[in-house]
């Protein structure tokens, strides 16, 4: 495994299109794989074929670990068969001795964006370029008991990465404008309003594309109460039209074909207005949205009951993960709280790394109907069949661990939390400090 230095003594030169041909061992050899060098093209193929991207950061002419992996794993029929079926392949190659550098700038930007510190590094990306999971040489190497060209362990690891990526999210909306504002008030979230006007304008197409962009959808579902609507006609006398008219007067909505408007109910000023964006280049819009979000103050000692608020906090503080505690107030829940959650040990590390959410199923306790509905949906989602039960979820919405009541005390419980937390960080955001450098291969 080799580190990519922050300052290079030689200019990094990028490979041209790399075709990794599998040696034909039989007439049934898999179709050769093609590693795309252009990320824009890879994203387009990913959207068209509804597949994730396996991005390979390499240095084909000076990294011995990459050469070893190419020979033993990536040029095998097994890998070719798996890759052709499951992913779009992309390679950013930091080769030193190549004459062409058509993708040098792109690869440097991607290396920085995805915090790639070592080669070889593999990222599983969705069709919007968001990281689902990552892997390094140690995850995909040929095991001592495996035959060259038959990397069963590596294929299983990659297959699990793909299978655990989750399905595409639907865009969450709340009916009319009034319901959207009411929902924002209930969850202390901003309203994000997409307003369109007219029939023929390029921005109307961009507005439609935005409603299908997974990066935008995931962000909106967590951080806002979202609504999309056409500018009401003058003859419209509905409740929503009257509300829109009042908001338009208060916030001075512009007269443009498409615009995104963010505001907090109760605030006097509009937080954000954007009337121009490009779905193929989402970063400026996403940065603008994130910059204008109201900051949610959270102390690690606070137990929340609203999962929407908790997810918004995790989105704003990505070093934290959700600690979802399902409880019903019975004997073992009381023991779990007394022996673990109420101890001094649990007020240390967990309060800096977790967002605590209690999902209460205690009988005989009056709760808002919507809260009971939320808790029931989450219990079904995570397969909760008994109490107490803990589910750990990262800021990507991925379940990374679970726990039940067991003896051993708070120290061992917190240590296990740390292990699960660090394993998830290693999987998603691997840095040089997290990697043990193996001995150079023979």
SSE order and pairing:
Elements: E1 2-3, E2 13-14, E3 18-20, E4 33-35, H1 39-49, E5 53-58, H2 64-74, H3 77-86, E6 88-95, H4 104-113, E7 118-119, E8 121-125, E9 131-136, H5 137-140, H6 152-163, H7 177-187, E10 191-196, H8 202-210, H9 214-223, E11 225-230, H10 239-251, E12 258-263, E13 272-274, H11 283-291, E14 303-304, H12 307-316, E15 321-327, H13 331-341, H14 349-353, E16 354-360, H15 369-381, E17 389-393, E18 399-404, H16 409-428
Parallel strand pairs: 5-6, 10-11, 14-16, 15-16
Antiparallel strand pairs: 1-7, 2-6, 3-4, 5-8, 8-9, 10-12, 12-13, 15-17, 17-18
Short description:
The chain is of the alpha+beta class. Helices cover 38% and strands 19% of the residues.
Distance between the termini: 13 Å
Mean pLDDT across all amino acids: 85
What is the level-2 CATH architecture name of the largest domain? 3-Layer(aba) Sandwich
What is the 3D form?
flat
According to CATH, the homologous superfamily of the largest domain is: Glutaredoxin
Strands in their spatial order, largest beta sheet:
2-6-5-8-9
Number of helices: 16
The CATH topology name of the largest domain reads Glutaredoxin
Percent of sequence in beta strands? 15-25%
Structural class of the helix and strand makeup? alpha+beta
Unreliable runs: 1-28, 429-440
CA radius of gyration: 25 Å
> Would you count the extended β strands for me?
18
Structure write-up:
The protein is of the alpha+beta class. It has 3 domains: 2-166, Glutaredoxin (3-Layer(aba) Sandwich); 177-291, Glutaredoxin, CATH 3.40.30; 303-428, Glutaredoxin (3-Layer(aba) Sandwich). Helices cover 38% and strands 19% of the residues. The protein is built from 16 helices and 18 strands. The protein has helices spanning 39-49, 64-74, 77-86, 104-113, 137-140, 152-163, 177-187, 202-210, 214-223, 239-251, 283-291, 307-316, 331-341, 349-353, 369-381, 409-428, and strands spanning 2-3, 13-14, 18-20, 33-35, 53-58, 88-95, 118-119, 121-125, 131-136, 191-196, 225-230, 258-263, 272-274, 303-304, 321-327, 354-360, 389-393, 399-404. A hairpin with a 5-residue loop joins β17 (389-393) and β18. α3 runs parallel beside α6 (152-163). The longest helix has 20 residues, at 409-428. Mean pLDDT is 85; it is low at 1-28 and 429-440.
């Amino acid at each position: 495994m080799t580190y990519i230095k922050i300052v290079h003594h030689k200019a990094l030169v990028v490979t041209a299109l790399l075709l990794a041909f599998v040696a034909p061992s039989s007439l049934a050899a898999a179709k050769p794989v093609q590693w795309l060098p252009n990320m824009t093209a890879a994203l387009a193929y990913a959207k068209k074929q509804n597949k994730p991207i396996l991005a390979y950061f390499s240095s084909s002419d000076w990294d011995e670990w990459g050469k070893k992996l190419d020979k033993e794993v990536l040029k095998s029929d097994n890998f070719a068969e798996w890759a052709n079926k499951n992913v779009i392949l992309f390679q950013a190659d930091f080769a030193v001795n190549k004459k062409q550098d058509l993708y040098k700038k792109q690869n440097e930007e991607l290396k920085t964006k995805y915090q790639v510190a070592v080669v070889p590094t593999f990222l599983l990306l969705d069709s919007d370029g968001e990281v689902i999971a990552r892997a390094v040489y140690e995850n995909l190497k040929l095991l001592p008991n495996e035959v060259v060209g038959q990397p069963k362990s590596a294929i299983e690891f990659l297959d699990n990465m793909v299978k655990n990526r989750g399905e595409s999210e639907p865009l969450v909306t709340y009916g009319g404008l009034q319901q959207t504002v009411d929902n924002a008030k209930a969850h202390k979230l901003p309203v994000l309003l997409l307003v369109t006007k007219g029939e023929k304008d390029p921005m109307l197409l961009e507005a439609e594309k935005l409603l299908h962009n997974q990066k935008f959808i995931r962000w909106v579902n967590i951080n806002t109460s979202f609504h999309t609507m056409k500018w009401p006609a003058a003859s419209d006398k509905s409740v929503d039209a009257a509300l829109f008219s009042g908001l338009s007067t208060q916030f001075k909505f512009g007269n443009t074909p498409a615009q995104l408007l963010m505001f907090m109910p109760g605030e006097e000023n509009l937080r954000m207005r954007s009337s121009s964006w490009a779905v193929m280049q989402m970063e400026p819009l996403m940065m603008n949205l994130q910059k204008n979000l109201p900051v949610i103050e959270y102390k690690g000692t606070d137990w929340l009951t609203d999962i929407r608020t908790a997810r918004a906090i995790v989105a704003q503080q990505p070093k934290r993960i959700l600690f979802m505690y399902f409880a019903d107030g019975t004997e073992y829940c009381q023991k779990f709280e007394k022996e673990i959650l109420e101890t001094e040990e649990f007020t240390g590390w967990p309060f800096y790394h977790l967002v605590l959410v209690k999902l209460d199923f205690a009988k005989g306790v009056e709760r808002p109907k919507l809260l009971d509905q939320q808790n029931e949906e989450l219990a079904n989602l995570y397969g909760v069949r008994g109490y107490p039960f803990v589910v750990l979820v990262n800021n990507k919405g991925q379940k990374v661990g679970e726990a039940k009541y067991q003896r051993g005390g708070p120290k061992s419980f917190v240590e296990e939390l740390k292990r699960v937390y660090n394993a998830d960080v290693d999987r998603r955001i691997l840095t040089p400090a997290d990697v043990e450098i193996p001995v150079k291969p023979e």
